[in-house]
Known about the structure:
The relative contact order is 0.15. This protein has helices at 48-52, 79-92, 105-116, 143-157, 159-170, 173-183, 191-203, 206-216, 245-254, 270-273, 275-291, and strands spanning 4-10, 16-22, 31-34, 57-60, 98-103, 121-127, 232-237, 258-263. By secondary structure, it is an alpha/beta fold. It has one domain (4-146, 218-291): Rossmann fold. An 8-stranded mixed sheet has the order 1-2-4-3-5-6-7-8, sandwiched between helices. The protein is 42% helix and 16% strand. It has 11 helices and 8 strands. Helix 1 (48-52) links the parallel strand 3 and strand 4. Helix 4 (143-157) packs antiparallel against helix 8 (206-216), helix 5 runs antiparallel to helix 7 (191-203) and helix 6 crosses helix 7.
Amino acid sequence: MSYFHQDHHLTHDGASLWYEVRGESTRRTPVLLNDGLGCDGFIWRYLWEPLTAARQVLHWNYRGHGRSGVPTDDTRIGMEYTVEDLARLMDAQRLDSAILFGHSMGVQVCLEFHRRYRDRVKALVLVCGSYGTPLDTWHDHTLLRVAFPRVRALVERAPELAQAITSRVLSTQLAVEFGIRTELNPALIKRSDFAPYMEHLAKMYPLYFIRTLDSAKDHSAWDHLPHIDVPVLVIGGEGDKFTPVWLSQRMAQYIPRSEYVFVPGGTHTAPLERPALVNAAVEKFLARVDGA
Length: 292
């Protein structure tokens, strides 16, 4: 049976970070999976098997996400802390370097981590994400950027009420169907693959979601793209509305040594919609990284 371990890492400011390690340790560089905002790992479902067949894989939950807790001061949430948490988690696992995968907001995490700790990054796989300021490009307009301050104020003022509303609304079958039909490709996505995301979002404390988004909305690694000095695979979904595909194309254009994979019909959940295409691209890329 392949190695499998789950545990928590306690940060210096009191956040208990959940992580899991799967696959046997080999000479090949391990992979480290970084989720999107409000996610706890649903996007990696079809990548686990091919990744763990050749190397060890570490996946974790950000502060306030999934099974991870928050620090004693629960305002200490956001990009600054996420990147440092990742570095400390690698230290605890004795990982000198890793191949970083990022989905959605996880792309920003990966890029910022490379900016600060480039010697610890062997390669990057950037999936359906942006280099920064995601509220400026969501659905190709700035409506969410304009509305966000009011939403944030409401959640900060009444977090328990916000939780009562989101837990009730997002946990319904109607919410799952609505998400699939309005944001994803219903001809390609399986309901059972998307439902775990909605289940996690319904349980997540809205205050921590909002504070994480508040940090990500103003973060940008655009200026760092030309300075990335490791192999990079960029994957973009044709119909992605959260992070429109032109963002992926633009990243690939400005990052040296990058490769770009376009997923026809794919959306923000392209790895679940066309797993064969995405898995094949990832395996070929990792084989080149291993052989370099």
